[in-house]
Each structure stands twice: as C-alpha cells, then as structure tokens.
Amino acid sequence: MLIDGNFVFVMLMTSDFEPQIPYDVLDLESGEFVASVDFSNFRLIKNGYLYQIGPDEEGFAVIKRYKIDPAVYGR
Predict the structure, then answer these.
(1) How far apart are CA 24 and CA 6, in angstroms?
(2) Which pLDDT value is given to residue 56?
(3) How would you classify residue 43: left for phi > 0, otherwise alpha for psi between -120 and 50, otherwise beta?
(4) Distance of CA 25 to the CA centre of its chain
(5) Euclidean distance between CA atoms 39 and 50, whole angstroms
(6) How many H helices and E strands in the chain?
(7) φ and ψ at residue 67, rounded to 5 degrees
(8) What is each CA distance from 39 to 8, 12, 54, 74, in whole angstroms?
(9) pTM for the full predicted model
C-alpha cells in the first residue's frame, strides 16, 4: 500500500507474494474507490510523481520521475 496526499494506492499480492497489477486507487477524503491504474514498473509514488528505478543500456542505475496527471485518478 502506498499513500500520496489524499490518495491510497493498494496493490494486491498473490499467495506467492507476487504483485498483482493494477493498483486500486482510493480517495482518503471520501473513502471511495476512484480507479484501477496500471503502474507496473514503478516502485515509488510521492508528491504526485511516479519513480521508476532501473538500469540503463550500460548497466548504470537510473531514476526516472513522471508527473501523475489527476485525470489518471478519474478526476
């Protein structure tokens, strides 16, 4: 589970602890389900940004940051 601002991102796990995509997005203010969103390949959500961490073509670690559009949440 990840929390960012007023949104909670819930990822279900299987019995063998493999993550299931998509994330369910819940609004903390209303307590309602907002949307299911595919954030595969992303490991961190903070301050409205998604962070992707992985190697580049030469094997060096790279962190990429993407701004989340509020439309992703169905707003």
Answers:
(1) 14
(2) 85
(3) alpha
(4) 9
(5) 8
(6) 0, 7
(7) -75, 135
(8) 13, 13, 15, 15
(9) 0.61
